[in-house]
From TrEMBL, chains A, B:
Entry keyword annotation includes Nucleotide-binding: yes
Ranges where the ATP-grasp domain occurs: 34-70
Name of the protein this chain belongs to: Acetate--CoA ligase family protein
Organism: Pseudonocardia alaniniphila
InterPro entries: ATP-grasp, ATP_grasp_subdomain_1, CoA-bd, Ligase_CoA_dom, NAD(P)-bd_dom_sf, Succ_CoA_lig_flav_dom, Succinyl-CoA_synth-like
Length: 714, 714
């Protein structure tokens, strides 16, 4: 993964790290850190190790300017505390004096300390102090950090993260990714820093920790960023020489082989099927049958011969043909034995509805079933889930009520409660769904397996996921980066505040990472993050309704000036750009609206206008190539009632589509209750429309744009 | 308004300002600035004016340490450009050299310049650089600014504003009001700055600009804030000696006298009443009659004898008895004459529905009617509005459809479109409303008049306002500070982004101020700001439903762990505090929930629990005095269906209220579509509940808390 065009001296680094390991150290000395930096071409200030005061004087003379002097001893970790650091030393006498004083201090601090000498270092100054570092995140592994240095930014926490390895373009994006980025570009007549030099330091550091994963933390702080280069004034390197188990990973082919049989099974077995109402094993059977699933259904129950008209089997091993997925509805304690039999029957996937595993503190039982599954070649969904829906197969393998509005939206949730909210929202909003999948404890199958399946699933065109943690952040990012090039992925990451994270960890035993790490890396992976449950649901519903915009020029056409102002607010908040209106286009719009209507953008057609004004301006907005997306603000009047507006808008949009003009159109409807029906009508006709809110339609448009940009489509 | 305990030398300031005025200057020289600071006890560094090099040497010696030297000349404004500034000068020779060089530079820069001498100033350093200033905002008048100094904060714009005059407590709140406030309190072992000294500078500056309004801008930048004091290193004062017309203001008694007759009229005249369907004058008549208004209705129409069964009059002057309000439905051009007649008839209020005034560029006509109204003693609502509703009187003086769900919510909107959204939302959510008022162009009556009325209106217990600008920010703040002590006020300020503000100004000709000024001053005035239309509406609906909390301890009780995590996120985002659970209380909750349920807060009762578990835990949450507010997370299961949960919750809450226990309870319902009915039921029974969202119920609770805190109730 290393930047192959750069010659790195890996042997030199290996030697330093091996020595530290041999000595049982978990940190490197400053000269070692410097050697590591040099080996990977990370610029550091001139320096040398002085064994005597004379050597120190000579070194200081060679370096020029004031120097910093620091004790070098494997036995003194806290150099400042030991009186082992002097800075800003100029002149031979001062250097000599500092040398003697540091040695004396060090001996007083620890008489037994072995002293290698004193590091004499060129003092850097000028330029902007920044921090560049690497850390090992429990979720994502090696992560690169960039931020401005100094106490102020430490308080404001203005830093940005990326998954390593980081290439040059990504490194440049980190410089732009902090709030105070403007400072790097030069403010108040200050010169811009050398962005390429900083990006170079970032990529080299990234390559280094990628090549040597035993480097657990790496701080270059401060790095002085100047208009003509950058160098790291201080280096701190921590090691973790323990072996970490790699997460179990499967190839895409393996994942697809299993997932395809699970999602499109020819035969489903229900372990613990029951004829008794109210039992989960009964609900699942009913839902499979009533949902219209056309494949074989095998109830497994040691005490029954037949359940709901289907022949029952005592054991899964008794089932005559192949089975693609086994849905478990038995209590937790019966799962291990049944799972063994599922493995013996060569069933590739088990869906574990029962609870009573890690989420109740029973980690042993969960570990046991994971082991059994691995030995038997069975992949597990759950445990502790509601099951899953897959509408292309009319498959409703859950204990909830069936859902049958088919469409392209696949939804997943870590939590059962959120799964139920997904179901209710889908039903009430008539959202076309391909899949709803519960992930629960994620003992095995998780988000990246599902993304790998949905990526190639012709029946899915968007994925929305609720998650509290990622078991394997790196696999998630890999899968997400692949699929988001083709299909949008919306993620609601719960536990994003400190308190929320605490609740998450008491709930699933998951260790929720710092939210800023998630935020930056989710962005890097191309997903659209939703910051609320309702946003996730509305984005899932709205994004596939909207065509992908071809550019950034957004135009607002509004009957209510007041809505225009609020819609403009929403445009800015959602990172969209109101088009600067070309003169000819401005004139063209003006021709349709009263002289006192506001030209420019928003285009305020004014409130008392007839349907023809809405129609003419919307048509112009659709037909002019320079405009890429439309936001409509409708104002309920007697002259243009809600349904009249809805029908004319739907018609004009359909006419444009018939001509091959595909642009996203969203609408905010301000008016009496009839605007609810009008909004529904518009939504069913490809216009994302809401009553009583100016913010929601623009937020959905903004989400579509975020995806289109990350997929490189605009 | 000045801080009376401090002896200010007003005469000294007046003398400086008068001199500058006499000389036609709009800025003060540095020594003048210093004199002004001294007169108000604002500490500045030691300094003096040197006429000769010898004097400069003597002064520098007296001041001690390095000095800054600056040319003082009324003819040289850009001192640095003129080579007239030297800093960090130490030692007699250096001071002498600097003196000569500055004089030479100044003469080279402008040979004609009259030179007063050279200012020799003690150089301050150490401590934290902050900026303290005052400016004259077009909406709010004198406004005080506080922020950290330095280029970084300039980029991050971390400043806070307050309306002057500012008292000591408010000044202290400014120090806490910036994002980087932590720096002032001391970070990384740094000492805290002297907050009282900084607050003292702020209040003195505030008193100064309050006493001398001709000071239009005042910058103390930087002020060095040290652990043992603060002093201003640089002073910049700009003057505006032009006379500004004070906005017309009325006393509270005058406002109430008019507003009471307008809102509770015994007789209403409709100028331009019509029998013809589709005419606005017909709609208004119908709405008045069909809305059930019990007072007299006088149609005014020169061509009719009777309209909708009511005797019509040719002119308003012909009406026999007193009239309290005249509703105008005639075209703009007929307004002036009719308004004159309204004045002659001594009608105190005119409601101007017609458009065609400032909003269409016709400022002259608007100015004319304002003048006529003032001469006639008539207050104007509008023009360019839908009219107004006042349900306690069954009064529907609008051309929209009647609204009759009575309740305590008063809503106002500057925009007609937003007014229609208010109407539709109210109807669909069955919100109990006292008034809906259109403000339109606000040629006269505006938000502060309405606040003054609603403050004492027994039928109103909350006010929600949509606004794009304030004509008189100071009157608004005064009225808002008064009413918000008793009743919550929610404000949606549109045009809050740069783009939004642009749209506002093209729409109403209003000059939208910088949003941060609005944000801070709205907070200072005690209003709850909503940042979206839907939030404004939901806050208006929900806040009066919830009792006022008595403390900050919020507890989440949830059936779905996943909802618990999202609800915790929302708690943090809304500035609420999850209660640290005392051991005994934790044990008490644990007694009701399964052993694997999560204790602490959120209390995760787990998903499979029967109604009795919800009931027992909710009751305990209500009855324990240490808990001040409850957030419920419901998870739809067969064991506890939605309506069962809704009914038991409503019952337990009602039982507690019967015992005098009043706590806000909000709920998020995750489940299939039945949760919609359950949420409605809960809302009707005093629990603010929503389906498919974890964020909205917590946002409403957060809004209630914001108001309760600002009113000093917790």
């Amino acid at each position: 993964m290393a930047n192959e065009s750069v010659a790195y001296d890996k042997d030199a680094v290996r030697e330093v790290l091996d020595k530290a390991r041999a000595e049982g150290r978990e940190s490197l000395t400053a000269p070692e850190g410097r050697r590591v930096c040099e080996a990977y071409g990370i610029p550091t200030p001139g320096e040398g190790l002085a064994g005597t005061a004379d050597e120190a004087v000579r070194l200081a003379g060679e370096l020029g300017g004031p120097v910093a002097m620091k004790i070098v001893s494997p036995d003194i970790l806290h150099k400042t505390e030991a009186g082992g650091v002097k800075i800003g030393i100029s002149g031979d006498d001062a250097v000599r004096g500092a040398f003697d004083e540091i040695i004396a201090n060090a001996k007083a601090y620890n008489a037994e300390a072995s002293i290698d000498g004193i590091q004499v270092q060129q003092m850097l100054s000028g330029g902007q102090e920044v921090i560049i570092g690497a850390t090992t995140d429990p979720t994502f592994g090696k992560v690169i950090i960039f931020g401005l240095g100094g106490v102020l930014v430490e308080v404001l926490k203005d830093v940005t993260f990326r998954l390593a390895p980081v290439d040059h373009a990504t490194a440049i994006s980190m410089l732009d990714g902090i709030k105070a980025a403007e400072i790097l570009r030069g403010v108040r007549g200050g010169e811009a820093v050398d962005a390429d030099a900083l990006a170079d330091v970032i990529t080299r550091l990234s390559d280094l920790v990628t090549d040597f994963p035993q480097i657990s933390e790496f701080d270059l702080n401060p790095v002085f960023a100047r208009p003509d280069g950058a160098s790291a004034a201080d280096v701190r390197i921590l090691l973790d020489n323990t072996d970490h188990a790699e997460p179990v990973r499967y190839s895409q082919e393996e994942i697809l082989a299993t997932m395809s049989r699970m999602m499109r099974p020819k035969a489903v077995a229900v372990i613990g099927a029951s004829a008794e109402n109210g039992k989960i094993g009964n609900s699942v059977m009913k839902n499979l049958i009533n949902g219209g699933y056309a494949g074989e259904i095998y109830p497994i129950n040691p005490k029954a011969d037949e359940i709901l008209g289907r022949k029952a089997y005592k054991n899964i091993g008794d089932v005559p043909g192949d089975v693609d997925v086994a849905v478990f509805t038995v209590p937790a304690k019966f799962v291990p034995q049944a799972l063994r039999e599922v493995g013996e029957k060569n069933i590739p996937a088990a869906v574990l509805i029962p609870s009573g595993f890690a989420e109740t503190g029973n980690h042993e039982l969960q570990d046991e079933i994971v082991k059994i599954a691995r030995e038997g070649g069975v992949r597990l969904l759950g445990p502790n889930i509601y099951g899953y829906y897959y509408t292309p197969q009319d498959l409703c393998a859950t204990f909830c009520t069936p859902y049958d509005v088919k469409g392209g939206v696949a939804l997943t949730s870590q939590s059962g409660g959120i799964g139920m909210a997904i179901l209710g929202f889908s039903r009430t909003s008539k959202m076309g769904v391909s899949a709803i999948v519960g992930l629960g404890n994620k003992s095995d199958l998780d988000e990246d397996d599902l993304l790998t399946y949905f990526e190639q699933d012709p029946d899915t065109n968007i994925v929305a996921m609720h998650l509290e943690d990622l078991k394997d952040g790196r696999s998630f990012v890999e899968a997400a980066q692949r699929i988001t090039k083709k299909k949008p992925v919306v993620v609601l990451k719960a536990g994003r505040t400190a308190l929320g994270a605490k609740a998450a960890s008491s709930h699933t035993g998951a260790l929720a990472g710092d939210d800023k790490v998630y935020d930056d890396i989710l962005k890097q992976s191309g997903v659209v993050r939703a910051y609320s449950l309702n946003d996730m649901l509305e984005f899932a519903r709205g994004i596939p309704v909207l065509p992908t915009p071809k550019g950034e020029n957004v135009v607002i056409i509004t009957g209510a000036g007041g809505s225009g102002v609020l819609l403009s607010d929403a445009v800015v908040e959602n990172g969209l750009s109101l088009m600067e209106m070309p003169k000819d286009l401005d004139e063209a719009f003006k021709a349709f609206i009263p002289p006192f209507g506001a030209s420019g953008n928003p285009i305020d057609i004014t409130g008392g206008e007839p349907p023809s004004t809405y129609e003419a301006t919307i048509r112009l907005g659709l037909e002019d190539d320079r405009i890429h997306a439309l936001i409509l603000g409708y104002w309920h009047t007697i002259v243009t009632p809600p349904m009249v507006f809805a029908e004319l808008t739907a018609r004009v949009v359909a006419e444009a589509r018939a001509k091959g003009i595909e642009k996203p159109v969203v609408a905010s409807l301000a008016g009496d209750v009839e605007v609810e029906e009008a909004s529904d009508y518009l939504y069913q006709h490809g216009v994302v429309a809401y009553p009583y809110t100016t913010e929601k339609p623009v937020a959905v448009l903004g989400a579509k744009y975020r995806w289109a940009r990350s997929a490189g489509l605009i």
